[in-house]
Amino acid sequence: MRAQPTLLFCLTTFSLSAFSVAHAESGLASYYGYGKAGRGGELTCAHRTRPFGSVLRVSYSGRTIQCRVNDRGPFIRGRIVDLSVPAARALGMMSAGVVRVSVE
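Now predict its structure.
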């Protein structure tokens, strides 16, 4: 039996859109100067739910960086990601401390 093209298109569209929407979020980010350091200057971050080793794209004020999840956190209400000092410096948020970012 052959699948109907319309049904196949709908299932494909739904699964791709659900995947991309479910992983985009925006909220507050902070940085931390303790814990696990990235290997060889790698930009790292802490996230509550993303798998260890996954790479996040974090955007703030026209800049975008890619950082690897290597820790859990943040544990302060309203914050969605904690960046390592090198990642915060690359994003240009060191003087602000806490900023609103988008994470993909």
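The chain has one domain: 25-103.
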